[in-house]
Amino acid sequence: MHRTRNEDRGGDVTAAFTYCLGSSKSGIVFLSDVTYELQSINPGLCRYRCDNNSENAFVLKRALTINHTWTDGFDVLRQPGENYAFTSPDIFVTEDTRAQSDDDTTVPVLETALYFDEPAYRKFSEYFRHDDEHLADMILAYVNAVQVLYHHPSLGKRVEIVLVKLEMFKKQPVDLPHYNGERNLLLDSFCAFNKKYREKEQWDIGLYISGLDFYAMENGHWSGSTMGLATVGGVCSEKYSCIIAEFGSTDPLGKPYPSAGFTSVYILAHEIGHSLGMHHDGSSNSCPKEGFIMSPSRGITGELSWSECSARVAVNLNNLECLFKSARRSAAVQKFDHNKFADKPGQAWDAKKQCELLLLDNDAKAMGTETNDLDPSQQLESICESLQCETPNRPGYYFAGPALEGTTCGPNLWCEAGKCVKGKPKKPQKIIKGGWSQWKVHECTSGCIHKSKGFRLRTRTCNNPKPINTNEGCEGPKHDSVLCKDDKTCQKSKKIMVTEYATAKCRELGSILPVLDNEYSGLQAPHEEARPWMGCSVFCRRKDTGSFYAPRLDVSNLPVDPYFPDGTWCHSADNGNYYCLNHVCTPENDLKRSSKSLTDSNDDLPLMINQNARPPGPYAVPEVLLRYFSVGSDGTPLLTTITPDMVDRTDYGDWSSEDYVDVPELRPQDVDQFM
Fold first, then answer.
1. Are strands 548-549 and 538-541 parallel, antiparallel or unpaired?
2. Which residues are the active-site ones (predicted)?
């Protein structure tokens, strides 16, 4: 059914409304000097944005022309092989994301252009299986999470972040060299790029989001502690309205920085604060140096609110005219508007997805969501302050920072401002538990080591069905190994001794870990029933202690295998042989044990070891871990047992900024870096 109603209310207002039964409603309102369009909000957006009376939810926008057509998404500028770009001439700003004020003109609006560089695109695109729309959705959740912080009551004044441009670089533009992350050169490069394109479209601030590990040369030494760089008070400047920030960065050993995963939200919020005029807390002001977003150090827990010093800057944002020139604040609902998450991005990007993004690992999950988790102290409600993650593919655990706003932290509970509180009721969601696909069996391969066999890798996928509305994946390993004859793969004359393999592997590991002495032969340790990984781990001589060390934790985040290949002979007992399967020394006929995953097989090892990147500075493997993973030259272990209380559980959150970078034409200390 289709109806149109025209109504004339005097000479000042004329309105026309149209609705189709079961479909959308729209209308036009003509005033004497302006024309407005109305459009009912689609159900998908209402799921996030509307109150219970969603049937009467409308968007009001100023019409650019009488014939202006309704649009449901950004203009997509995309051709095969080109960069992926979204541009928005009109941005949707709804009532619940505006400041709670009767006077809408007092709300600062930060019109933003965001560029996702080629290193970041390459890093995340593979994880998202080259689905650009899914990747863009993640970026929008990231931006919305930043806006959540700028809506925090402690700021005293809400700031709206409106995305007017989003571009992902499949190939780095020739006029935007990234200098491999050298922070000063990169900032200068992006500021010039931003100024060039900002002249036409006039956004307030440009964001360069990078997958690089930013660095600087300080006193002749490489320093990689910088995670963002911005000019203090640069937001309304043609030359300095530009920010660079890391996203997804890791240290040289692949361990995640505080700028990895959604923890990077706090890096970007911090840098935007600088651009708005905020200095570090405790720097030329009386606020505490720690505990707030503008702290000079960035941890991976807490620091969710603004200090009084930051709030004083926010109050004075009314003096920045560029934040109140709202030409782009008309109300066309945009498919790629980050406000679709309604300041609750954790509802769409749950705890498991946040862990997956941190580690770029589909098997990662939040600790505390299952009864058999390794850390019983990580309760689900605590994720709002500090989300801990684990994966069966790597030992240890990882801090992912505070869970996103809106993340479910219990029945009818969600995270809000770092606390687990009662959430708004949602419609019951059907939970579908995941199921495994059939095993895919690969060809027989072999390390061709004396007395050893070959192995066949078996893999399966958790997609039969795919788990829906649950943080839990499929139970059991996604891959395992089974033994096979390697006669066709290896000839006896080509098989090498196990020491030869270990020595070659130690040379490879020594090129990554300078503490290993790659001039010495590697060795295979004797099998231990209590530690079945011993006979399958490669042990290399350390320069500092002279003992032989298995660097299992050191390289666990790199595509480097510190183990002997599956199928390697590792022990014999009761007239039977043992072989390495899934890095565990396993009786040949023990099929049950051979199907265990890496984490499950570490029965003896309390994996409560933080695997996040450590701040710059001297670091030595704790003595207890050094001894636990070491043997003497005769293979005798230095330490055979370890308990959780013996392990350092520091969160390694003290990433601090100690200096400023001067910029010509600005007063001293006007360029600030976050480290």
1. antiparallel
2. 271
- The domain locations on the chain are 2-62, 83-278+310-343+659-674, 351-422, 440-466+479-596+616-646
Q: Select the more confidently predicted residue: 137 or 622.
A: 137
- Whether 366 shows a pLDDT value over 80: the answer reads yes
Query: Any idea which residues carry the catalytic annotation?
Result: 271
Q: CA quadruple 612, 216, 115, 93: dihedral positive or negative?
A: positive
Picking from 175-184, 462-471, 504-513, 643-652, which range would have the lowest pLDDT averaged per residue? Answer: 643-652
pLDDT digits (tens, 9 = 90+) for 502-517: 999 999 999 999 999 9
Nearest Cα neighbor of 361 from 391, 341, 381 is 391
Question: Can you read off the two tokens belonging to residue 81?
Answer: 């092989």
First to last CA, the chain: 61
Distance in angstroms (rounded) separating the CA atoms of residues 331 and 60: 6
Check pLDDT > 80 for residue 443: yes
666 token code pair: 């600005």
Q: Is 280 annotated as a binding residue?
A: yes
* CATH code for the structural domain at 83-278+310-343+659-674: 3.40.390.10
Q: Which CATH class is domain 351-422?
A: alpha beta
**Fold: same for 83-278+310-343+659-674 and 351-422:** no
Q: Please determine, for residue 669, whether its predicted confidence score (pLDDT) is greater than 80.
A: no
pTM for the whole thing? Answer: 0.78
The DSSP code sequence of 210-279 is ESS--BEEETTEEE----EEEETT-TT-TTT-EEEEESS-B-TTSPBPTTSGGGHHHHHHHHHHHHTTPP
